[in-house]
Amino acid sequence: MAMIPDPAPAPRYAPDDPTYRPVAPQPPQAPPPPAKASPNRSAMKLIVPAVIGGLVALSLGVYGNLHEGTLVAVNIAGFSNAIRAKAWLATFAFVFALVQLVSALAMYGKLPGIHAPSWTGTLHRWSGRIAFLLAVPVAIHCLYALGFEWSSPRVIIHSLLGCFFFGFFTVKMLVLSRRGMPSWALPVFGGLVFTGLAGLWLTSSLYFFWHTGSLKF
Asked: How many Å apart are CA 76 and CA 78, to the nearest integer?
C-alpha cells in the first residue's frame, strides 16, 4: 500500500531573511456612521404638508367668499350675545396660545435663567389643544354668520388671517406627525400659527373691546 506523504510544513522565515515581511495586526475599525438625510431631501418632505395646508386655507377662503353670510349665530350660555361670545372665546384662545409659546421657549432653552420643569411638555400640548378648540367655534361663527368680507382693510386682513391660521395649523400638525422633517420646520410653522392667531385677536377681539369700551360677557 502506497503511503501518502505528509504535507510539507509551511516555510519559516527568519528575521534576517530578505523575503520576511512581518504583518502588523490591524486595529478594529468602527462601523460607519448612519447616513444622514441631506437638507434638500428633508425640505422636500415639506411639499405634501404645505400643499395640504394651502388647500385648507384656500378652501376656507373660497367657501367664505361664496357663502352669503346669514347674520345668524348660536349664542353660548354665559354670554350676552354671539358677538361677545366670539370676542371672548378668541381672547381665551389667544391666552392659551401665549402659554404654549412661553412653554415652547422654555423647552428650547430660550428663556435665560429658567429651567423647564418636567411637566412643561404636558402644559405645552394641552394649552395648544385648548386654544385650537376655542378657536373652532369662532371660525364657524365667522364663516357661517359673516362669511369672507371686503368692507374694510381691517376686515379683509382678519378674513385672510383666519384662512392662513387654519392652513398653517394643518401644516404644523402634519410636520409634527412625520419623521425626517427639517429641524426648523416645527418652530417656524408653530410661530406662524401663533402669529396668525395673534393677528386674528388684534383685528377682532381687541378692536371690539376698544370700540365698545366694555369687557363684560
From this structure: 6
**DSSP structure string for 19-66:** T----PPPPPPPPPPPPPPPHHHHHHTTHHHHHHHHHHHHHHHHHHHH
Alpha-carbon separation of residue 87 from 135, 177, 192 (angstroms): 10, 31, 21
In a domain, 125, yes or no: yes
Count structural domains, the chain.
Answer: 1
Judged by DSSP in three states, 117 sits in coil
What separation in angstroms does the CA of 203 have from each of 156, 176, 207, 210? 10, 29, 6, 11
Note the pLDDT tens digit of each residue in 7-61.
555 555 555 555 555 555 666 666 665 555 555 676 778 888 999 999 999 999 8
Within a domain: 215:
no
Is 117 domain-assigned?
yes
C-alpha cell at position 177: 406627525
Residue 78 structural domain: 47-210
- Integer Cα distance of 74 and 139 in angstroms: 13
Band the pLDDT of 167: cuts 50, 70, 90: very high
Q: How far is CA 40 from CA 4, 59, 98, in A?
A: 69, 29, 32
Does residue 87 contact residue 207 with C-beta atoms inside 8 Å? no
pLDDT at residue 152 in the model:
86
In a domain, 35, yes or no: no
**Global confidence as pTM:** 0.74
Q: What is the pLDDT of residue 87?
A: 87
